[in-house]
Amino acid sequence: MPDVSDFILKLQRRRIEGSHATARQTAELLRSVVSQTRMPYTNQAAALLDAVRAVGEQLIAANPVELAVGNIVRRVLHIIREEDLSSSAVSFEGLMISEKSDDEDDADHKGGPVLSAAAVAAAARSTLRPRSLQTLLEDGPLPAAPSKSSSAGDSEGKSKSDKSAVGKRLKHSVIEAINLLIEEIDDCYEDISEQAVEHIHQNEVILTLGRSKTVKEFLYAAKQKNRSFRVFVAEGAPRYQGHVLAKELIQKGLETTVITDSAIFAMISRVNMVIVGAHAIMANGGVIAPVGMNMLALAAQRHAVPFVVVAGSHKLCPLYPHNPEVLLNELKSPSDLIDFGEFSDCMDFGAHGGAPLMHVVNPTFDYVPPNLVSLFITDTGGHNAAHMYKLIADYYSADDLVIKRKSTSSN
Amino acid sequence: MDLRRPNRPVIGPKVRQVGFVTPDSAAATSSSSIPAVSAAAATSAGSPPSSLSPVMIPPPRHPSTEMSNPHFHPVGSYNPSEQILGSPPALSPSRSSRFDADGSDFGGDDDESVALSGVGGGMTPKSSLLMRQPVTKTAPLVSETRKRDSNVSKGKGEGPSAAPKEKLTKAERRATQEAQRAAKAAAKEAAAAGGAPSVSKQPKPATKPATQQKKDVPSGSGPLQPLAPSGSIEKKQGKKEVAAPHPRMQFDDMTKVGKLKKRAVVNQSEARNRVELFRHLPQYEHGTQLPDLESKFFQLDLIHPSVYQVGLQFLSDKISGGNARCIAMLLAFKEVIQDYTTPPEKTLTRDLGAKVGSCVSFLIECRPLSVSMGNAIRFLKNRISSLPHNLSDKEAKSRLQSDIDRFINEKIIIASKAIVEHGVSKIRDGDVLLTYGSPSVVESIFAYAHGIKKNFRVVVVDSRPKHEGQGLLRRLVERGIHCTYTHLNAVSYVMHEVTRVFLGASSVLSNGTVYSRVGTACVAMVAHAFRVPVLVCCEAYKFHERVQLDSICSNELGDPDAISKVSGWKDLNYLDGWAQNENIQLLNLKYDATPSDYVSVLVTEQGMLPPTSVPVIIREYGIERLWT
């Protein structure tokens, strides 16, 4: 597919930057992948899952640091599973008698032959979720283990293989759902900024680092509600996007002070709240954020200033970070920091056994551990860092955490 | 401040303790034992709290008298010191002989009171002792008692005549002065309280002789300011070390700013879009002063050309860094002194002091002084004022010049060598050392460690807008040291591999706060969070008795335009023309304050200390080192 290779190239060359743009384009690409997939007569959902997984694997490999790609791939996989189950629920009505699959016990448990589509859909959704206290309480003892859902899909496919209309309907509803996902990604700014007035009050002093569109919209929204407050913008080396943010803020009439990153510790004692954007939120509540954020979070903790992370739900990543400073990081060109011409004479490779004496480190991301984050504001509301795993469980199915075709074939 | 300094051989401080300590005890004892008589004591009882604070307990000197009655501890401690005071070795023979007669009289008095107090505090004294009893006991009123004593004796017609009153020793004068202050406070107190008749009566005899003394003894300014010691040099010292640090100029005080502007040599236009939080600091339009000063070069005959040159170098940031600025300033002053001739009918000590003062204020206009420079100026002024009067101009000048050389040599150059030796001992093979900015001492530590073949790697952390680390990086790489260069935001990325953090400091304040290049606090904080030891290298002449908790109360603002322009990013011009928009301010802080708990150890030429020991260094060593 030309689309896919094109997109992979863009990701590899870091032409697409920012998790919002990446997420949106990934969703669009996957939508076209889904629509182009030829549906077999049997096992349609599995075919869709395989197709998406195949593309997703390449996309993730293209830029493993851009976690939004993986997030969206997993979201789409989750959507396919969900739509598959709910469409099978619709087919329940017609095929009630022929129902002999292992999903039956699930239906029996729900109470008898009179099954509404909604109830089955709910049951199906609950099978997609991993077992948790909430699902246990909602549904009582649920026999279907989460790993069962894929096999359930298979059996569903078999049972209604004779009906091609159902397959059409599945594809269609998956595309619909992906459209909804794209809409959600686009709307996340509005949803988040609606909550701004609850967090920003009059005469507040807010500190932010670098530039984040979410933060900008958040501050705009508070300003529109006639809250007057002051914003300190740390410029955010090495890219100095804070300058852009400052310019955008003063255009809306916000009182803005630009400070150097080094002045963060000096100024934070006069700050009421730190509001920053994130690159990704990990399942443990840790945050992958632009470089310098860990320093800012530590300073905020030292002065007991609330450290608030605003992020759309497409930034929620179901993975747990291991050594994120190294594994989920990216080193950029040293030319951001020093001038090659100026230091060319220091790059004498011959003098010291072939190794240069000088190294320049220019990482892109920082990892902020969950204990430093006071609050997450996503488009579904405010959350504690400890609650993140639960939120993530709502969006992703446990089967998709590892997107590798090997693992799926063994399934 | 330095009440707990028992072992000084100088007389001054001991007496000071007496004066400062006793009001409490006097209040406690005399008000309880002789309520009717001790009006002065009663008045003084109101001012300080009656409980002895631990700081105020004077060290025991004459155990024999004190041990007998613990309740009269202060009284006992007061008396012997008074006796010691009676025979100062420095006194001229004529004075001492006179004093001997006088002092023996008082000595007898004191003994009497000690004996009395030994008998029992609760006892009502006999009528003949009625006057003396409160008198000798109320310690802040030492001289008052003396005066009264003489008055009493005059009335009795048995004591010495008025002659000793006129020729008092310095110690006595000081005591008088103190009494005067106490009396003033008492009077105030009395006025406030409504004043019983006895109260208003008592202090008067004390104030009268005190006013007589006023001519030759400069009166202290504040009621809390403790007494000046006897010698003239010591007096200066005492004031310097005891008085709280002079409050800094606050630039939000309109009247003061107006005054300053009238005096100012440099025309400075106020910056637009001043940062509200930093209104108390000078915020001037940058870049305007330099051409203005250059055009004024021939009009400013007051300023010596070398000072002028240094000022311009400060202004244009050609010279930066605490040590470099301090040395440049001192060398300029040396030239000023070289070219100085005392004008007719003026004394060198006063006129040269004033001249140096005007040079200093010029330098301040160019750039606010660093603490190190402030200390050096204090040193120089002190040397000038302590010059003997009988010196010829030439001698005085050569003496001052050698003093300056000695200061530069001892306090800066030798001190940094000592620091290097201390610092190197903390570098092991295989260490990864992180430093921030370009501290000169740390650089020489690295160079020395490399010279003795230690195997280590350096991480140079740098930040906008000055990028001083690049210079350090270049110099270290040229020496052949393995370096990693990064920016401040990435410090938590590199901190994983770092084993030691070496930082420089502009100044270390009395509460252990390290006042340094902005960003140092961030580095120290991250190092602390990663459990990496932080070593702050600082010469002891940069210590200051000021205290500071945050970086906002006192700081220096750099050129805001340096923020809007990013070197190497030509397309980053979003903030061009920022001054036209009143909503935006650019803040370019120059320093920040690192809390002492982030600092593992301070490396000074005195050794390696915890930051909590800074006040000890300032107190115990600071004065002797700096002022002699």
TrEMBL record, chain A:
A Pfam family this chain is assigned to: IF-2B
Cellular compartments annotated: Cytoplasm, Cytosol
Molecular function per GO: guanyl-nucleotide exchange factor activity; translation initiation factor activity
GO CC, alphabetical: cytosol; eukaryotic translation initiation factor 2B complex
UniProt keyword list: Cytoplasm, Initiation factor, Protein biosynthesis
Complex formation: Component of the translation initiation factor 2B (eIF2B) complex which is a heterodecamer of two sets of five different subunits: alpha, beta, gamma, delta and epsilon. Subunits alpha, beta and delta comprise a regulatory subcomplex and subunits epsilon and gamma comprise a catalytic subcomplex. Within the complex, the hexameric regulatory complex resides at the center, with the two heterodimeric catalytic subcomplexes bound on opposite sides.
Record-stated family: Belongs to the eIF-2B alpha/beta/delta subunits family.
Protein name per Swiss-Prot or TrEMBL: Translation initiation factor eIF2B subunit beta
UniProtKB/TrEMBL annotation, chain B:
Pfam families given in the database record: IF-2B
Statement: the UniProt record of this protein carries the keyword Protein biosynthesis: yes
SUPFAM superfamilies: NagB/RpiA/CoA transferase-like
Cellular location(s): Cytoplasm, Cytosol
Key words, A-Z: Cytoplasm, Initiation factor, Protein biosynthesis
Any one annotated GO CC term: cytosol
Biased composition (Low complexity): 25-54, 87-96, 177-196
Family: Belongs to the eIF-2B alpha/beta/delta subunits family.
Name under which the protein is recorded: Translation initiation factor eIF2B subunit delta
Species the sequence originates in: Rhynchospora pubera
Native organism taxonomy: Eukaryota, Viridiplantae, Streptophyta, Embryophyta, Tracheophyta
